[in-house]
From TrEMBL, chains A, B:
CDD domains: HTH_ARSR. GO terms for molecular function: DNA binding. Residues 21-119 form the HTH hxlR-type domain. It comes from Ensifer adhaerens. It comes from the Bacteria. Keywords: DNA-binding, Transcription, Transcription regulation. InterPro entries: ArsR-like_HTH, HTH_HxlR, WH-like_DNA-bd_sf, WH_DNA-bd_sf. GO terms for biological process: regulation of DNA-templated transcription. This is PadR family transcriptional regulator.
Length: 131, 131
DNA sequence: GCAATTACGCACCTTTTGGTAACTATAGAA
DNA sequence: TTCTATAGTTACCAAAAGGTGCGTAATTGC
């Protein structure tokens, strides 16, 4: 008799370092430029498609729709279709989405605070190897 | 006389929503599954290549090297080559890297806390459309 | 009647990400 | 002598991310 451990159930304590743990999937979902920015933007309040495009600056219609759909699918974003013509669709954060946006805003602040340090390091690194 | 605004300098207040702002680049750097996990892992202390592979569980040698190199280039990770044979290379967090890891750990905790909510939402969403 | 508006869907294409396998060098162990 | 371990690199290939342009619906304004 042999015991197959490859399909063993995930350990009781969730761990993002465990590739089979579902929390890893949750992390991968938000480890995306557009997902992060969309959730941060929606923290300012419900927004329509066009408003989000303006806020994000350079997202394509395709990527915006695609990312919003994934976020809605995972319950982070709520999509409300007023079913009018011309269309009127509003996106907002769900309670879970809002619990995430707080942390993401901290990340935004980190980027805005330390980007100059990264820029300098990158310049030093590149200058050293191009010789 | 025409004024070209396309190359206008970035505003004085850094903003991740401004595509031309360098802080956006910083955000994109860490908006990556492997970058996030590597920095979180290094928070536990300096690690060698093989130890990181074990900790991350399912990263390929190629992606690990590639991501570490980008993080080193931007000054988040410090690479110390002891120049011995067989090779001995240690990776650790720089001060900026450490300032980031604190926030990333909060993200990890978020994923480990709320993944079940996401799983449930996803299942509901998929069940509704496959009919 | 014609154009604009809105939030998409779809087809096509390019770029980036990621995986696999083979190769490098040398010390120490079997 | 051959095997193992170390931390990579390179070439090749598959998959995912991402961009562009076109089509769609009905209502409002000209």
């Amino acid at each position: 008799m042999t015991i197959d451990l490859t399909e063993a159930p995930t350990t009781s304590i969730p761990d993002v370092f465990d590739p089979t743990c579902s929390s890893r999937h949750a992390l991968e979902l938000i480890a995306s430029k557009w997902a992060m920015l969309i959730i941060s933007a929606l923290e300012e309040g419900p927004m329509r498609n066009a408003a989000l495009m303006r806020r994000l600056g350079d997202v394509s219609q395709k990527m915006l729709t695609q990312t919003l759909k994934e976020l809605e699918r995972n319950g982070l974003v709520i999509r409300e279709d007023k079913k009018t013509v011309p269309p009127h669709v509003e996106y907002s954060l769900s309670p879970v989405g809002r619990s995430l946006s707080e942390t993401l805003l901290v990340l935004d602040r980190w980027a805005e605070t330390h980007f100059a340090t990264l820029d300098a390091a990158r310049e030093r690194y590149d200058a050293e190897r191009e010789r």
